[in-house]
Amino acid sequence: MVRRRVRGVRAWFEVQTLTPAPPAPPSKWKLWFVNMSAVFPPVLLFNLTVLPDLGDLNALIRTLLLCLCVTALVTWILMPRLQRFFRKWLYPSLQALRGRHIRRAT
């Protein structure tokens, strides 16, 4: 953090920018990759294990069950973990801002 010393009433009227700007959003292809990594495995697993047992059900109900299960799994379990795992890759500017890209001698 950079400190500035301002004298007089000028400090009351200037906009203080002590917090850094938020990082730019990741590129679309990186978001696509993380989303595909989260969605494809559960859809494949559901199609191979659960859908053969539900063959007698209406196609609308089967699709609804697939969407409900996969969306819940992706939203609450897979995406938070994948976002944490790919954080440095998705937001490299944030890591550089924090100084974590520099190796520190022990």
TrEMBL record:
Name of the protein in its database record: Uncharacterized protein
Q: Which organism is it from?
A: Streptomyces azureus
- Membrane spanning segments where? 31-51, 57-79
List UniProt keywords, sorted A-Z.
Membrane, Transmembrane, Transmembrane helix
